[in-house]
Amino acid sequence: MSTSEDYQAKAEETLAQLAAATSESERTRLRRAHGAYLKLVSHGAEAAERAAMRPPPRIVPEKPSAAAGPKLQGWSIR
User: Fold this and answer.
1) What is the mean pLDDT of residues 6-28?
2) Distance CA 14, CA 21 (A)
3) Residues spanned by the domain of 42
4) Alpha helices for the chain (secondary structure H)
5) Does 76 fall in a domain?
6) What domain count does the chain have?
7) Residue 25 three-state SS
8) Is residue 9 part of a domain?
9) Contact 49, 16 (CB under 8 A)
10) Domain-embedded: residue 63
């Protein structure tokens, strides 16, 4: 698995290649690759922030309470 430092190095490498690019299609490809690498650099930090903002999981009892009563199985016509 690549780390953010690896993606940062790849982004800098694509910037260097972008400076040496000769055709417009090559420039476009390298600009897109550079943007993708920059997004991957910040992905880990953003995922940690999202996990911190998520509410804690609900506490659910393992067994249903006796007060809940029996649950009906399927359809019933009365």
Assistant:
1) 92
2) 10
3) 4-53
4) 4-20, 24-53
5) no
6) 1
7) helix
8) yes
9) no
10) no
